[in-house]
Predict the structure of DUF3795 domain-containing protein.
Amino acid sequence: MSIKEIGCCGAYCKTCKPFNTGNCKGCKPGYDTGERDLSKARCKIKVCCIEKGCDSCADCPEIKNCSVLSEFYGKNGYKYGKYRQATEFIRQKGYDEFLKIADNWTNAYGKYK
């Protein structure tokens, strides 16, 4: 388990088959090695997070006033609220505690103890 398995938005990527097989086109793989060009990325969350050097949006000191993240978390759909919950959990308890819980999930989000 590592922080690389957590998406910028709070999704837990380790449950995703493309992530585990090395075929992920998500927010982190390839940017650290230069295989992918961040200037061509369309996800504003990913671009901001990587440019600031954050492991996820949970690390950003500007999270409370972030319009990009607020818009994303405000979308219709259960998963967006769960991603917000993950980010808030990480901010409060840290990555290690999050990974202990998330390692039991079968989706990009799950229940907290």
Summary: The chain has a mean pLDDT of 93. The chain is about 40% helix and 0% strand. The helical segments are 17-20, 44-52, 67-73, 78-93, 95-102. The radius of gyration is 13 Å.
